[in-house]
Amino acid sequence: MRQSLRIGIFGTSGMAREAGDIAFACGLEPVYVARDEVELNAWKYHHKVILEKNVTQYTGVPFVIGVGENKIRKAIAERFKNILKFTNLIHPSATFGYQQREEIQQSEGVIVAAGVRLTSSISVGDFCIFNQNVTVAHDSVVENYVHIAPGANISGNIHLKAGCWVGAGAVINQGGNTNKLIIGENTIVGSGAVVIKNCESDAVYVGVPAKRIK
Fold this sequence. Notes:
- This protein is of the alpha/beta class.
- Helix content is 15%, strand content 26%.
- It has helices at 14-25, 37-42, 70-79, 100-104; strands at residues 6-10, 29-34, 49-51, 63-65, 89-90, 95-96, 111-112, 117-118, 123-124, 129-130, 135-136, 141-142, 147-148, 153-154, 158-160, 165-166, 171-172, 181-183, 188-189, 194-195, 204-206, 211-212.
- The strands form four sheets. Strands 5-7-10-13-16-19-21-22 form an eight-stranded mixed beta sheet, with helices on one face.
- A hairpin with a 4-residue loop joins strand 21 (204-206) and strand 22 (211-212).
- It is globular, with a radius of gyration of 17 Å.
């Protein structure tokens, strides 16, 4: 396959392979990037995998970071800033409101999985992951390095600050037009939680309604 039809994917775990599934759906051939010899030797799939130390041999290929952990994704992005070209990877089944896809294309390193729906007037930062069947409604802000896990529902007027993680099936209830509901930086919202008020930074919230436990 021609190099122009390849895409590099950092990672060899489940998130990376899910990114590879999106790549295949887009007609691209994934090249996976293992962190070290241990990851490389553990690889048991047919697709091509290279070591991170050799990644600069692929500077003509666009890359995404298929790592679910926000801090690791950020570290990789910063390590290869101005060395590699990062792109967005969007599954063909994802749907978007008016000009929303164009808005995402202003960012880099964004992964949008199958079944995602983003409506309109949503600001999206760099290196975010919108996992399977996530919905994000109008007038929301999603900052850099956010990961929204499968099936989560982000209602309108929500502000997800940098590095936060929203668990599978969680619901973030509607914010206001003038006062968005805020999920603080690096905060974790547990799977199945229902958030009805602002969440502080560097915290963990779980339950219905969601309460801080850490």
